[in-house]
Give the backbone structure.
Amino acid sequence: MTEIFGTSTFDRLFNAAISRGYSPEAAAAIGATISIENVGADLITFKGERQKRYLKYCEKNRIDYRFPDSKIEYIFVELSTNRDYKASEIKYAQTVDAAVKSFNENYLGKTLNTTELLTLIGLGNELYKIFVSNA
């Protein structure tokens, strides 16, 4: 498993995305989506078929499925191996808005209402400012 740096889950998620060549805008969009979707100490929760694929991946690679870093790693494995999704669309996003739309609608298959979209874009832009503008 790739070593992921940072003190908070957001730090670790953002740094994992950047180290894999994702734009800062994409990293912020992924962080915003995950933070809204899965509030709690664990932060990242997989359900249904996605949970089954995750557990199979962990078993195959002898990774402890309970650790947040394992879940962060899996997000990027899944993004790069999902044949139905063009990861480059989010990976090279030039705006947080485009990255939020791509990650949610095209990757997670979620249709966002206006409030959800604006909330994620707002949070994504705040994360972007924290991680990029203050660097």
